[in-house]
Design a protein that fits this description.
Elements: H1 6-23, H2 29-42, H3 49-68, H4 72-109, H5 127-143, H6 152-160, H7 173-181, H8 187-219, H9 226-257, H10 275-281, H11 284-298, H12 305-323, H13 327-345, H14 357-377, H15 380-390, H16 406-422, H17 435-454
């Protein structure tokens, strides 16, 4: 089910809120959220609810056993049970075909026949997110950063909580532990939640979907000129930001409506003056997860400069692989890992650190755009064709057409470009009980709903990861 759909906005969400606040006693609220979250998740394919439940059960038992024993060996054994089971599920569904295809190709090169079957598995929505969340439970308990959940229902509520179940932000258990035990419900929280939700919905429906046709057009061309390549890549750069940050805002807003506070996931990333700063502002929950559970255990910056550069590279390489089973995602991770390592050599400063900040921001933005080319291309061949267009090797013309709705897409492109560099982000918009803000939010919401009548609801980009 999509947040930007009639089924969610006018059916499931009202049912959830009515049951949560008006019908059920407080002690049943978490159970109600578990049921509703499974309905939300099962809307795509009910069969994968069993996979979500299996991960929940394994990690709940493992976390409890880790907390119950003082034996370091038993603690580590149960930690491995949790981590290996989560990574096995993620690896099988997400990476089996990539691995099998790679083995078959190598076998063909050397004249052998591996015969590994290609399963073409349907990727369970959100598996990359909820496996990382479930893993954090046993890891946090093992490290002494969290207590075991009060009950299985509380833990199931944490893993399946529908606002951030399928596309984040990645909420670690210790961040939600105390809130699951006791959290407040106030009009201020509800008002802030509604504000973030409507702003996030507007980002997705009115901005991301408005520039999406320009990105799709460019990446679908067999041959594309300089102007078309750059405008399409810019469109995708804007689309993925407004799409994903819009989802995160909606998730945080829904959490606030239910009394939960989730962490901020975006902080105006395109205003960054270096790639290092970009990763402090982009997908913050993933960046911090990789830092705390991968980069630091690898040694972080504690084992000398060379090892630090290697750790940065490996962390980003695996971060790229987390996004999808494709060599282009791995290259995207390797690209960012290399940039981070090079910046670390310069004391975390950007490559244009001697320039005025506006020029540093512009340079960083172009570097990030090149990364999005790998991210969006889908194949090395597609990447090569678009790269040739960016370099002008296919001519200088061929921009996105102005016919039909093209002019509106161009207007949206210019508007969104200005927004990412000048406007405040959603978290800087403070909710206050004023009629002017309320009327503005109502008008934005109605405009989004009216847009549903014209355009079919489109899924969020990060659902595929």
């Amino acid at each position: 089910m999509l947040f930007n759909s009639y089924e969610f906005l006018f059916l499931l969400l009202p049912i959830i809120l009515i049951g949560y606040y008006l019908v059920l006693p407080k002690v049943w609220r978490h159970g109600w959220l578990v049921i509703c979250s499974y309905v939300f998740y099962g809307w795509w394919d009910y069969r994968y609810c069993g996979l979500l439940l299996l991960a929940t059960c394994i990690d709940y038992v493992a976390g409890g056993r880790i907390a119950a024993t003082d034996d370091p060996k038993k603690k580590k054994r149960w930690l491995w049970v949790s981590v290996c089971s989560d990574l096995s599920m993620l690896g099988f569904f997400k990476y089996y075909d990539l691995g099998a295809g790679t083995v078959n190709t190598i076998a063909q090169w050397v004249g052998a026949d591996s015969g590994l079957p290609m399963l073409h598995l349907l990727l369970p929505v959100g598996i990359s997110f909820y496996t990382f969340q479930a893993m954090s439970y046993s890891i946090d308990i093992y490290r002494g950063h969290a207590r075991p959940a009060r009950s299985f229902i509380d833990f199931a509520c944490y893993v399946s909580l529908f606002p951030q179940l399928v596309a984040g932000p990645i909420v670690r258990y210790h961040e939600l532990d105390s809130q699951l035990r006791q959290h407040s419900h106030t009009w201020a929280k509800a008002g802030a939640g509604i504000t973030l939700f409507v702003l996030g919905l507007s980002k997705k429906v009115l901005l991301a979907d408005a520039v999406a046709p320009m990105a799709d057009w460019g990446f679908s061309q067999a041959v594309i000129g300089f102007a078309g390549a750059w405008t399409s890549l810019l469109a995708y750069t804007l689309q993925i930001y407004f799409d994903f940050s819009g989802y995160s805002d909606m998730a945080v807003g829904l959490g606030l409506m239910l009394g939960f506070r989730f962490p901020q996931n975006f902080n105006s990333p395109y205003k960054s003056a270096s790639v290092t700063e970009f990763w402090q502002r982009w997908h913050i929950s993933l960046s911090s997860w990789l830092r705390d559970y991968l980069y630091i255990p690898l040694g972080g910056n504690r084992k000398g400069a060379v090892r630090t550069y290697i750790n940065l590279f490996l962390t980003m390489l695996l971060g790229g692989l987390w996004h999808g089973a494709s060599w282009t995602f791995m290259l995207w991770g390797a690209y960012h890992g290399s940039l981070l390592a090079l910046e670390r050599m310069h004391g975390r400063q950007g490559f244009g650190w001697r320039l005025p900040r506006p020029l540093q921001v512009a340079g960083t933005f172009v570097l990030v755009m090149f990364g999005w080319l790998l991210f969006r291309a889908g194949s090395l061949q597609g990447f090569a064709q678009m790269a040739k267009g960016l370099l002008g090797l296919h001519g200088w013309g061929g921009a996105y057409p102005l016919a039909d709705a093209g002019a509106l897409n161009w207007v949206a492109l210019v508007f969104c470009t200005g927004m990412v560099f000048v406007a405040k982000n959603s978290w800087e918009v403070r909710w206050q009980p004023r009629w002017r803000l309320a009327i503005g939010l109502v008008l934005l919401f109605l405009l989004c709903v009216a847009t549903f009548l014209v355009n079919t609801s489109s899924p969020f980009l990060y659902f595929q990861f």
